[in-house]
Design goal:
Elements: H1 5-9, H2 13-16, H3 21-31, E1 36-40, E2 51-55, H4 59-63, E3 72-73, E4 87-93, H5 102-112, E5 113-122, H6 130-135, H7 137-146, H8 150-156, E6 160-163, E7 166-167, H9 188-192, H10 195-198, H11 204-215, H12 218-222, E8 231-232, E9 236-242
Parallel strand pairs: 1-2, 1-4, 2-3, 4-5
Antiparallel strand pairs: 5-9, 6-9, 7-8
The structure holds S-adenosylmethionine.
The site of S-adenosylmethionine has 23 residues, from loops.
């Protein structure tokens, strides 16, 4: 099934969702000795030094791929158009929660990967994120369901999980990326590149509260412990399952 979501919300993706070099390094390490890689739910973080094939359902996302990027096949994770064991590694980065049938997509990754499956995902963090704690708790409610670890356990069986700390100047504008740059959430372009906002209705009243709190200093007082931090663990994880 092809999803139209990123045909709508993906328009400014390449501008706001630039790969972060520290996260890219962690993904490179996770891929290990894989020479050929299928990137399911394509976008950023495609290694240049490996033989990459991208799989992406959204024409808008495919159109934003730089000219030098690897070939992209328009397809869904649920039905990868490749024979068994076609690639050393299958990777899926911040995409699994969008799949209509997560278990089917994970089974497909296991089927086409000879050596390992690498997934960049999220789990409910021990440290609450101020944006979802104080302004948009409805995002957290949805994400708790969508990012359930159950499908990973059911399909991958045993896997390693590594913490991916989010740097204060993260260049990939996903939900928690602007944890120390709160004014960025007032930027409509930044919000448009974060799928969690696409599910919300009119957010103008809540954004007005955030703006007021930034202007009068109450955000800074409430989040004073963040101000001297350089990175935070907000639940982003790299999952590595060896075949
Ligand atoms: C948040 S973006 C992440 C893109 C990329 N992995 C990255 O890290 O920049 C989510 C991606 O998942 C893709 N996606 C949505 N449904 C999908 C499906 N059923 N199969 C494969 N990819 C899907 C979207 O089109 C979008 O490109």
């Amino acid at each position: 099934m092809l999803t139209p979501l990123y045909d709508t919300i993906g328009k400014g993706y390449a501008h706001y969702r630039r790969p972060d070099r520290r996260i890219a390094a962690a993904i490179e390490t996770a891929l290990g000795d894989a020479t050929s890689v299928v990137n399911v739910g394509a976008g950023s973080y495609e290694p240049r030094e490996r033989d990459v094939t991208a799989v992406e359902p959204s024409a808008t996302m495919i159109a934003q791929r730089p000219p030098e990027a690897a070939r992209a096949v328009q397809a869904s994770a649920s039905s990868l158009p490749f024979p068994d064991k076609s690639f050393d590694a299958a990777m899926a980065l911040l995409t699994v929660h969008h799949w209509p049938d997560i278990r089917a997509g994970l089974r497909e990754m296991v089927r086409v990967a000879r050596k390992r499956v690498v997934i960049f995902t999220w789990e409910v963090p021990k440290t609450p994120f101020w944006l979802t704690r104080d302004y948009f708790p409805e995002i957290l409610g949805y994400d708790r369901r969508q990012f359930s670890p159950a499908p990973l356990r059911d399909v991958l069986g045993r896997f390693e999980t590594g913490v991916v700390p989010i740097p204060h100047d993260c260049s990939d504008g996903f939900l928690c990326a602007y944890w120390k740059r709160p004014g960025m959430y007032l930027d409509p372009g930044a919000r448009a590149a974060i799928s969690s906002f696409a599910r919300l209705g009119d957010v103008s009243a809540t954004l007005a509260c955030l703006k007021r709190d930034l202007d009068d200093g109450s955000w800074a007082r409430r989040n004073a412990e963040l101000l001297d931090r350089h990175e935070m663990d907000y639940g982003y994880r790299l999952v590595i399952a060896e075949s």
